[in-house]
Amino acid sequence: MRTILVLLSLATAAVLVPVELRAQDVTITIKNHRFTPSEVKVPANKRIQVTVVNDDPTPEEFESREMKVEKVIPGKSKGVVRIGPLAPGRYPFFGEFNEATAKGVVIAE
Amino acid sequence: MLGALIIVFREVIEAGLIVGIVLAATRGVAERGRWVTIGVVCGVVGASIVAMFAGVISDAFQGSGQELFNASVLGVAVIMLMWHNAWMARHGREIADEMRRVGTAVSEGAKPLTALAVVVGLAVLREGSEVVLFLYGILASGTTVSAALIGGVLGIVAGAAFSALTYLGLLAIPNRHIFSVTSWLIALLAAGMAAQSVHFLNNAGLVQALDQTVWDTSWLLSENSILGRMLHALIGYTERPTQMQLLVYILSLVAMYLLMRFARYSPAKRLPAAAE
Lengths: 109, 276
Prior knowledge:
The structure holds 2 protein chains of 2 kinds. Chain A is of the alpha+beta class.
């Protein structure tokens, strides 16, 4: 019985690990000059691929000094940025063309 | 309006500083005005085309097209700047002599001028496409069109005025030092561009080695401030450089130095032939 449990948990772990790896890819959507989600949790010290989808008709510049990213996303389009490895902490990002509303933060932990 | 002005101003001064340095570096060279103008005009036209195809470029290479495009543009600019400096190291003395003899204009300048026209064009292309996209965004959103648009146009004017000030400031350097000063400015400019190019490759996921941040001087000088932006454009100041960026920066400076020394060395042997 115990061996079956161990095997089961190992199998679960084997299934969960790839899911965990895939979870490093994040999608952020821009709509009405706002980011959704505006708060993104990512694992620390890993490279993460962020897909920024711009649903607005106007272009936006996805920018973060803290994460060293600066990328123009044309209207009704999407772009991929790669961030990290990030030390644990908060990393704000914003849309340079609409800074008043387009704000968000990546939390590495 | 103020927001638009500041955003456009920041982009324009980055390209404007480069134009200012190029103008100072070619002081006394005949037809430089024409070449720099060609560079700026091609840059503006190119920027509009790039902005028009921004969606296509962005989607290319799994969404990393923009990074690869920027990295290539910077790479070409670095090569052009190195070529110019090597050429200048070889012919700078002749030009300086000729300037003394004939006055100000020098006929022999066509070669580095094409290289520098390309550098000017690429700088305007890169920063300009963002300005075009930004202004297009204002037009497309339709809100407070006039105010934001006026701000954007004022930003261009202010940026151009600032670039003119840079040029005039560099002109204050005495004639006999201008070549060495501008050579060093161009060397630092090229090193900064090379490091930036590597950063774009890192963002595209192509270069992943040595990606740890070496230091963080954002508390001292933010890259977002006007001074930070200027130093970023001029010498490649980065508030959080990676090990790879730092390495490429230093290697570029070393390569430029060796190239200039090497270029300077050979004409000395050929000098008797040139004197005929």
